[in-house]
Amino acid sequence: xxxxxxxxxxxxxxxxxxxxxxxxxMAAMAAAQINYHIMGYFPITPSTEVAQFLDQMKARGEHDxxxxxxxxxxxxxxxxxxxxxxxxxVFNATSANGLLYMIEQLPVQAGTRFxxxxxxxxxxxxxxLDIRGDHSDLYYALNTGWVILTARTPQAVYDINIxxxxxxxxxxxxxxxxxAYDGFFTSHQKRRVQYFKDRKVVQQFVGECPTDYHFARDPxxxxxxxxxxxxxxxxxxxxxxxxxxxxxxxxxxxxxxxxARISGREYPILDLYKMEDAEVALFLLNSAAESAKxxxxxxxxxxxxxxxxxxxxxxxxxxxxxxxxxxxxxxLLVGERADSYGANGPNLTHxxxxxxxxxxxxxxxxxxxxxxxxxxxxxxxxAEKFFDxxxxxxxxxxxxxxxxxxxxxxxxxxxxxxxxxxxxxxxVYKSGLIDVRMDEETNKLKVKIPPLRALTGKPKRIAxxxxxxxxxxxxxxxxxxxxxxxxxxxxxxxTGCAYVTTTSYPHSSHKQTxxxxxxxxxxxxxxxxxxAFLELKRRGEIEVSDDATxxxxxxxxxxxxxxxxxxxxxxxxxxxxxxxxDNEGYMNTGSQMSxxxxxxxxxxxxxxxxxxxxxxxxxxxxxxxxxxxxIPYVFTGAEAFPQDLIKKGAKAQWYAQNVxxxxxxxxxxxxxxxxxxxxxxxxxxxxxxxxxxxxxxEVEQGVTSITYNPEDKNKRVAISExxxxxxxTKHLLKEENKPILEEFEAEVEKRWQRLKAKHENPFL
Length: 764
Hints:
Helix content: 25-40%
Largest sheet: 8 strands, mixed
Mean pLDDT: 95
Number of helices: 24
Strand order of the largest sheet: 19-18-20-21-23-22-24-25
Strand content: 15-25%
Distance between the termini: 70 Å
Structural class: alpha/beta
Oligomer: single chain
């Protein structure tokens, strides 16, 4: 292997410590030792851990980085760009669709030449959704103007992160830098690594933060950043940017040599493993290259001159170095964890071929194989097969199949899954026991529902066998709401626990039509589906029942990143329901803080320690935000109050079918991340309502009505009576955290009194 863990300190000058850590941990370690000014971030698997580790270190007082939780990756990119424009040192981490969501911001930052470092923990871009590692996100970044470095091991993640900032800030470069490493293969697998004992070594290597640039930091020296350009100026701007990114290649070589002197670890432009006399070789990015090196040793023992090439930098693309490395190679296989659909080979394949075109004497046969998509493992046996292909091409003198996928298999019709239940629709979901009528005098709906036991015969909308955690309140809450909905439904589930646990291909727990789209676009997507249904029906092209109800399900913080889409859908007035299950965090990615997390509550990105006591600001009131869009019906609900929730479900359906958009928010339990006992689920919900933290009310035609008042029933309890059941909040009950609890209590009381005022005055 190119980087043997037992030899990495043989030349070291600065004192280093040995540990056993993952790539994400080492990215956070490098950032903390550099002590960046700002990190704007939004959680997405598998990069989420970087922010989590930094938050834990922050709670312990190990760095001073200002960690800013964004509303989505687009927002995080804006935070980072704005901070970089001041000359601050800026850091970020993302993956997959997170990169794509922010991607229109990346050329802005590169084009205006503001340095920063972003770790891209590579992952498959959906759809369909797959959270494991390939390079389909990385390939989208190739044309953004960012320098791109690659890291094969956790050790390389640490080292290259340190070099990346120095490269980004170099006077001949001044460009943002991506450090790309493989999701889960490198990000989560632990390896023996070494790091500098004294962070001053890192800070001295990186140097002082540059100030000799036109930053937005001094009112006495005003600047205009990003002024509009015409074509004559823009071509000059892009030429300068192009020259800078090519210069980054030579600057990286210089920085790597300097880093080798203090660390003993070398990072050449190309990592060449036994390429001196190689006749057959593999070109692989990141972790796959490490797997292939052991195979090279085995082939060499059999007398086959094999080698592996793996670049440490792909932007700028090292064309000159590749020509030199391949001048004597007879056959090369370029393996890539992504495709460029329709191009007869992925991006790097064409760039390798293009580099070889400049050497008229080169006769290397180039094969291209797409492999390892969606985190499909790459074993030594796979590398052996790659080498078999190159040896065959060398012996034949040509590639019989220059481009192909590797690892795909044909489907077997005999194994096609059969539905385990007969599709249920129409009358099956009509109990006939729910009566909803408009009261012309009050301009409010009157709802009559039977005793709960009378609705038990109504089938569930979601079948058993899903993968939700024990005690999860999502499906109990959703099913209770659905009891109030009569007839067919079409649902859209945004990404989140409810989606992931019910749709593991090739299985599905959904009995009726379910569509998935990402957090940021669920409401808009369902509005398109609804309008298409209506138009197709108007034209007589389909036959569907008149009472079908369209419901978007969001949760796990989806009303942060998805807020814009939800508001836009509400303002357009589509006849659908948006239902949010609120579990107070981004639970599907590991219990990170969301804007619905209450102040002081502990999550994996709002830790509790000597300098930090949970989330630092108050929770977002999405129900009130959506009420401000003047949609006809907004409500809150909780499973612990079943009749109230079923009635609101019935009202929601009536308004969605007869007037326009509906928004509902239901509180649900998450024992795993709330650190609570399953048996206390209903109690926790009751106390959340009885403490007035989560009041039950509705806004019907602009008029607010509290549907359950704990004060009138002499059931109001202190906030502490709710918090004591959850491990994530027990620290708030300690004397030293009393000021936070008091601030929380004051905010809850203010919101409760404001709600009561609205209840008492229909004009508020």
